[in-house]
Structure formats: structure tokens, C-alpha cells
Amino acid sequence: MFILKYFNSKIRSFNNERKNVLKNLENSVSKNDNHIWIHVASLGEYEQGLPIFKEIKSLYKNHKIILSFFSSSGYEVRKNNSIGDLTIYLPLDSPYNAKKFISLLNLKMAFFVKYDFWPNYLQNLKNNNVPTYLLAGLFRENHWFFKWYGSGFLNLLKSSITHFFVQNKESKSLLASYNITNCTLMGDSRFDRVNSLLNQNNEIKNIKEFIGDKICLVAGSTWKEDESIMINSINDNNDLAWIIAPHQINKKQIKKFQDKLKCESIIHSNLNQNNITTAKVLIIDSIGLLTRLYSYSDISYVGGGMGNSGLHNILEPAIFKNPILIGKNYLNFPEAKNLIAENGAISVKDAKEFKRILNELIENKRERIKMGEINFNYIKSNLGTTKNVISYLKERK
User: Fold this and answer.
1) Which of 135, 145, 281, 382 is most buried as measured by Cβ atoms within 10 A of its Cβ?
2) What does pTM read for this prediction?
3) pLDDT tens digit string along 192-212?
4) How many domains does the chain have?
5) No. of H helices and E strands in the chain?
């Protein structure tokens, strides 16, 4: 990375963001305080853990919370938050950084979300006898640390994680088969998180006016593979209001997408009273609006499944009673498999199938409502995961 930063702007930015983290941390914390460290990979893991983080903050009022992010997309969106007394980038997982980081804090416990594991940090937490918890763990047999060459890391997980809180029975059984029994089935805390979206202010200026009396499709967290299957449907269907929220805000990629459209499209930051009723496609060029956008949609497409980047959160549109379309690669996502099995979501394999199913949903309002109710009820039936973690912590306080 030291060498590549001279040739790659993303890696250069990645290094620069972490350059002074330890120094700033040293100047910002006191060992007279009790610290809790919460680490998340990115925005998705932050949102997933948020209901639990809130309860931890309430339960340990006399502790200062250090919240760390690995990715810039998560940090930039949530660097100002109500959880962390200090919010930082995670320094790179080198032996020196991990030892220095943990030595600066008076850590009483640490939390990691899902599967963002860092061996040097875990080893130093273990060396310092810091209770360490995994939240919303999700394990599959094809994870590399269950292979013969990952046995050393699996042993580190066994010895450094105080307790595993996992999302599903399959994860718990898999861990048990490797003699890891300090494990609780908590479920998926994203259900609690997305349920809270109903109580927030979801209004976005000018969106209602842009949609007018049209049926609205919101395509969230899309990659170019997702966008490519929509182009023919956008060009052929004049009765739909399209809102596209790309996963990455890349001006060149957005321009390429716009150039393939035969209709008028507009960037959200340029939306005004002159183009609000003439544009057919609205492209979001900022981060943090997607959960609120789903509250406006009649049909949702969730990106990531047409390529190999990983399907994004389909629970967010589900809570707003949206019928959901996704791409073909979803088998590693239990909630997607469940909603497809219950007929609340549909997987499409190409542009032709996307167009056919979309047209069927446009024509059949009753089916849209039915699918939306299935998705809403699925969320409601899976609430309560937060209390499983907090009850455990209360017993040991």
C-alpha cells in the first residue's frame, strides 16, 4: 500500500485518512475514563448495529465510546453521530498500530459487527484481557478461516472473542461444529433498525413533486451491472418515475449512464422547479438519502445482485411495503432467500426478465400491495434482536 499510494488516488486517500489517527487519539482521550470500543466496517454495519449501540450507550452511561470505521463511505456519512464520544478511522491492522491503539485506551469491552475481523487488534485485546464481543455474526462454511489454511485465525477467534452473537441457526451450528459454544442466537438487528425508519422524518424536498401522479421505482445502491438491465425499460416506459441512487457517486459513471437514456434525466443536486416535472429519471448524487427515498416508492430495486459486489440491504424498502426486485446473485443473503420464498421479492437474471416483471407489477396494483404486505410482515415478525444482546450484558454488569 505504501508503494501503490503513489499510483492510485483511492489508496493514497486511504493512507492519508489514517495518517494522524493515533496522534489525535492520544490527544483526545484520558485513561481516567472507562472506554468502550465499537468497530464497524462501513455504513451498513453501523446501521445494523445502531439499535444495540444505543442500548449500550444507555446501559454504560459512565463510559466513553470510541467508534471506529474502516471505510471512508461509512465514516464520512456518520462521522457526526449520537453514539461515539469520539469517531475515528481504524488505523491499519499492523502489530504496532494495534498495540498502540489499545494502550491509549482504558478499555472495558470491545464490540465488532458481523465479520470485520482484524488479527492484530484481536490478539492485543486478548493480551489485555478485554472482553470482546461479536455482534450480528454471520458465518458460512466457505469462509476462509474454516479451511485448513485458516485454522490459525479460527483459533484466534476462539480465544479472543468472549461471546459470539450470531444472526441465524446455521451460524450457531457451524461454530458449534468447531467447538465454539460461547454463542447466542440474537437474530438480525437490522430488523430493529429498519423498523425505526417508520418513526423518522422521511420527507425529502421536491421528491413528491418530481413523482407527481406516476408510479415510482427507486433503485437503491446500484452498480453499473444493475443499471445496465434498466436502460431499455427506462427508454420504453413513459409511465414511471425513476429514482436511481448509485452505490458510489462517480460523476463519470453517472454521465455514461445518462448518455444511454433517450429521455430527460436530472441530477438531484440540480433539481429545481423548471425541470421537476419534465425529467423522467432522477439520479441521486449524495449519500444518506436512500432510506427516506424508499418511503416514496411503489416498487424497489435493490442493487449489488447483478454483479459480485454483494446484495445491499433489502430490508429498508421492505419496511415501507415495497415489492422488491433484485439481481441474480443473492444466495449468501438469508433475508433475500426468505423474501423470495414468501413471494415478497423477485430475482431477475437479465434486462429482458427485469422488463417483463416490472411491467407485470406496473399493471397489477393488487400484486404490488400483496408483496408489500408480505415484506412488511416479515420485518415485524423478526423484531426484538436488540434485547437478546442487552439482556446478556445486563446479567454480567
Assistant:
1) 135
2) 0.78
3) 999 999 999 999 999 999 999
4) 2
5) 19, 14
